[in-house]
Amino acid sequence: MADTDDLIGEIEALGSKLAAARDSINRRFIGQERVVELVLAAMLSGGHGLLVGLPGLGKTMLVDTLSTVMGLGSNRIQFTPDLMPADILGSEVLETAADGSRAFRFLEGPVFCQLLMADEINRASPRTQSALLQAMQEREVTIAGAHRPLGRPFHVLATQNPIEQEGTYPLPEAQLDRFLVQIDVEYPDRATERDILLATTGATGTEAHQVFSPEDLIAAQELVRRMPVGETVVEAILDLVRACRPGEPEGSKLAAEALAWGPGPRAAQALMLTVRARALIRGRLAPGIEDVIALARPVLSHRMALSFAARARGETLQGVISGISREVLGAAAEAAA
After folding, report:
1. Which intervals hold domain AAA+ ATPase (predicted)?
2. Does residue 90 fall inside a structural domain?
3. CA end-to-end distance (rounded Å), the chain
4. Which listed residue, of 167, 178, 194, 209, carries a Cα 20 to 30 Å from 236's Cα?
5. Phi, psi of 22 (to 5 degrees)
6. pLDDT in tens, 193-208
């Protein structure tokens, strides 16, 4: 009983701290509460986020604000077609000492930080994109045969322009799967855009302040993994993920008709972590079915693909996921819609 009381106390204390962090972020990143919630959920779950949105919607400002509020050392990489893996990871250089002796010295690349912003990641070549794979999954890189650990915690927030243009390279499925969530950043409504105008075009701007430290974030990530998850929520996650796999015995008829492939076990793991994080952010002690429904699109949409026939019919992944959610989760999903 004492252990349960301690856990409840820790969850409530962290909830208050997260509320202060959200307030600080929202003062600069105005009117995008859902985006902020999803990014925080990804970080609390120890994962990475892919921000998809048109230019000028504040994605870079969000990452800059997050580094301040969460107390993380950050670097930014502007991805371009001529960017090379060594520009991200670092390289060894041969130096000559005063006595004439020579030795190799490793120069760290920008990946050696705690929060990495990969700006317009789909503009780099596949070779360079793949340089992030090991870093994102294993939190270390191997250069010249040496394993070099990255910062702790380590998170990648990548941005991607949804407009298809010449000179862009779609992210491979293996790298997409490394992102815990895909976060769609949409146009603000009129009232929000008015608030942005007034807040950002004056003589002074709103500054964010630090709420977390790296140690606080690591402790929060450990607490998320200790949060209880009811059997009903576990079964809902399994039902939803397995229903999205075409050709599987438990696959939905809609998945068989519309999807080329579906999500793997990593999607279920991502849902299991992010539903806990969302409940924590919203001041609850345990996740519910509503969290599974709310996170279905961000967690699943980049882990599946429409079939050619479905694209020809004009279907969307968002619509397919919503349809499967209603089919599998029933009345709860209908109410959420």
Report:
1. 45-189
2. no
3. 38
4. 178
5. -60, -40
6. 888 888 877 767 678 8
Q: How many residues does the chain have?
A: 337
Handedness of CA 228, 231, 233, 235 (dihedral sign): positive
What number of CA atoms fall less than 13 Å from residue 263's CA on the CB side? 32
Whether 213 maps to a domain, the answer reads no
279 domain residue, yes or no: yes
Encode 202-240: b = buried (16+ Cβ within 10 Å), e = exposed: eeeeeebeebbebebbeebbebbeebebeeebbebbebb
Q: What domain range includes position 310?
A: 227-337
pLDDT digits (tens, 9 = 90+) for 198-251: 887 776 767 888 999 999 999 999 999 999 999 999 999 999 999 999 988 888
Give how many domains the chain has, as a whole number.
1
Q: Which two tokens stand for residue 336?
A: 């959420």
- pTM (two decimals): 0.89
- Per the CB < 8 A criterion, the answer to whether 183 and 137 are in contact is no
- Alpha helices, DSSP H, located in 169-252: 173-176, 190-200, 214-226, 231-243
Q: Using DSSP bridges, classify how beta strands 181-185 and 49-53 pair: parallel, antiparallel or unpaired.
A: parallel
> Which CATH number does the domain housing residue 301 bear?
1.10.8.80
Cα–Cα separations (whole angstroms), residue 335 to 187, 203, 294, 321: 25, 45, 11, 15
Determine the distance from the C-alpha atom of residue 284 to the mean position of all C-alpha atoms in its chain, rounded to a whole number.
21
Peptide bond into 153 cis (omega under 30): yes
Q: Which contiguous run of DSSP H or E holds residue 289?
A: helix 289-300
